[in-house]
């Protein structure tokens, strides 16, 4: 009995040890090659945290063979990954026809339009870039500077500056595409916020649309009775950051300061204006109580649906929700919808969301940049006409057209443009906006901390993150 | 030499072992080992300068009050809903087991409907039913009856109550089935003998029913705890993490860290912490079943 | 006599309450899918004008036909892989005795107790590195990360209960051990394997966490699509309820019809 037991334990040990060793070795091997896959092992472990923008990213993505030209060297295949075209069939048809025509007129390139959805495009782009098969050009929700830092994005400064009509574009759309003064993305359009309201409700009470924060409080208070509410705020993830920033800008400040020459950031959450903005935002929900009781979990969609269901008097939305409001509101309500600017105080700045297209393949970058400028700037007016609501591609011709149209929505956007500010690019944007700013704003909204505490905490954590990235 | 002898004796085992090992390694064990490894690195956006940081992720996570709150919520959720599931399941099984109901299978089938639906689907239904807005069914009903509307999903505490009720609703059928099966295995003779001895309902329950159920009870408690600790689909579909992340269970917290904040190192650190909790349940189960 | 009556009455009452509690969300879901959106907002119980507009919008507005196909593919692949890996693993653990077996039992238990959310992260990174993001096989591999250990765990008890000397009997007739397994043990185990097939198919159909992260809009199955519908819902409540109903029907039917096997499978 005894010798047999010893034999078993010896075999047992060896077998188990072998299995564990195999699994651990495989795991460690895959770990090393996992997150930093074949083409770009160099940028990740070696360089210092300070970003090195220009030529070094270029050599590494090029070994990946997939996006480079199809068999014939004369025709370059350019993959365009975007979510434009998902909002309506008209938009999608426009893009497909445009791409077809462009390919006919330019026999040396072949643009391939790959449509994604807005919710997935960030992920899809990320996985393709890190997986070694990036698209040649992709629409980034807001210029994602993480790709610049990691070396995956191509520096397109010289191609952008080669565009002859660059100086006609406002700084609003150009600044967010730069990093330390050099272009990494091309501009698309500017989408600002707008407020929809129920005209009859205001007329009933003899009220005028508010133009300052004080007026906003008075008007919404008067309109809140029964199951009707005046205003609404958002408390859900992802949308809160975009809506709240308008309050911040109107209070005279912005999330962070960015020095383009040094590439350094500084958080503004220690300014009293920031606390004032958050206080007002929270007061609308907690103190003045002009919002529906469950507004603390509203997303951007909820603002639209509750307005369309007749629960709120005002709907403060971004430009891309205008079409949705018109579509979702019952037919009898449509004539009753009026449009106005967000009530602005002294500084009169308003947030505009600007997309950009980034480029990941140095061999096709020049042609790709040309295409993007042609689509959005030279021919931008045509696409503007196809998309509903007030999203303007911002060449002067488009702005003139918007002004001349007399459309109430477009008029508001055109008037807002000179006062618009866009967010400048920042790496780790999701983490900062979602995990830090939104989190504490939501907590303040729910009354768990005061606005002062929230701003102090945000300031502390954002500064720590900047320091971690070497950007402070 | 002993090794060689054993290898020869058991060599047929390898036919079964190798495919299993390959499959399981690829799908389960390698990702598991990777996950533990990643928790010691600062793998976060923008993925530059990745290096070994030891326990930095863990220390950071313990200092965050929202992780602590999430942990507390998850434990509370697990304890409350597992107890409620088991109690409700046991009560239902006892009820169904009585001589009154012949068509047990049909009734059991009815109870299974909620259990069989995908968790997202039941989450959506609950979200629709408990919503505050004009489309919320329960609130419309309560309003019509004069009770006023309740913010079931947007109030911190009510939201927790909602997801707990939803959890019990969905999963108690499992407990019912298992207890019913176990109850039907108890020979009727025992009850008859007890009645002859003059035992009332309570005594019968205590001395006959309960001991026979002990094993199933232990199994249910540990298995349910293991799985409920990992639950993500249904609570997330109902509250999306709740007002200001107050109903974010640990799995949802990991999901958020990994795919919204893009911080894979910390997400895996939380995962390892959750795993340690689950291990406690597993060890308890092994201890209980070892006696069998 | 009186005592019996009141006892019976109470029992039936309690049962009725339980059934109402259990079924009312489902009944309401069915009712809501036949109500037009305008009526849903107004409240009320039964639809005054029952319509199929919800169901139509599922296919025209939400384009869910592709999602159903995706679900079918993923669930079937999960089923196949689960069976393939499951029979070997369960046989190994259930029947064969060898030194060090206990370690593997522990390993299997650990396999399905490691939090899926954390495995999701690793799988996501691996699939990204391999370029399999968004593929069907990628999602199936992810689902199998917890499904395989679970399947092995359930199936092993069945193999334990088979008659003792089947393999030896077959080997006497001249098979190898593997041959005995394939030709004798497996055919006998068909009911259990059937139960596993059903369970893993349903598990693949219902999975949300892995598939929502690892799929692209083209390869997205029904469950994450339902979630996206809530996020983008936009007042189409009847469409959402109709989609939920359609997405749940396969699981409900299979579960309710095959209760016996499910119970037997769970009884380990």
Could you explain the architecture of this structure?
In chain A, strands 1, 2, 3, 6, 12 and 13 form a six-stranded mixed sheet that branches. In chain A, strands 10-7-11 form a three-stranded antiparallel sheet. A two-stranded antiparallel ribbon of chain A has the order 4-5. Chain A has two domains: 177 residues, D-Maltodextrin-Binding Protein, domain 2, CATH 3.40.190; 203 residues, D-Maltodextrin-Binding Protein, domain 2 (3-Layer(aba) Sandwich), CATH 3.40.190. In chain A, helix 9 packs across helix 10 and helix 16 packs across helix 17. With 472 residues, chain A is an alpha/beta fold. Chain A has 19 helices and 13 strands. The longest helix of chain B is centred in the first third of the chain and has 33 residues. The mean pLDDT of chain B is 84. With 268 residues, chain C is mostly helical. Chain C has a domain of 169 residues: MetI-like fold, CATH 1.10.3720. The radius of gyration of chain C is 23 Å and the shape is globular. The mean pLDDT of chain C is 83. The chains are: A alpha/beta (472), B mainly alpha (292), C mainly alpha (268). At the B-C interface, helix 2, helix 4, helix 5, helix 6 and helix 7 of B face helix 1, helix 2, helix 4, helix 5 and helix 6 of C.
Count of discrete structural domains of chain A: 2
Query: Helical segment tally of chain B?
Result: 13
Radius of gyration over C-alpha positions of chain B, nearest whole angstrom = 24 Å
Mean pLDDT value of chain B: 84
Counting copies of identical and different chains, the oligomeric state is heterotrimer
Question: What proportion strand of chain A?
Answer: 5-15%
The computed structural class of chain A is alpha/beta
Hey, roughly how much beta strand do the residues of chain B contain?
under 5%
In which range does the helix fraction of chain A lie? 40-55%
Per DSSP E runs of 2 or more residues, the count of β-strands of chain B stands at 0
- Rg on CA atoms of chain A, Å: 26 Å
CATH H-level superfamily of the largest domain in chain A: Periplasmic binding protein-like II
Overall 3D shape of chain A: globular
The pair of chains with the biggest contact is: B-C, 87 and 90 residues
Kindly report the CATH topology of the largest domain in chain A: D-Maltodextrin-Binding Protein, domain 2
Kindly, what is the distance between the CA atoms of the first and last residues of chain B, rounded to a whole number of angstroms? Answer: 35 Å
Number of helices of chain A: 19
Q: Please tell me the CATH architecture of the largest domain in chain A by its name.
A: 3-Layer(aba) Sandwich
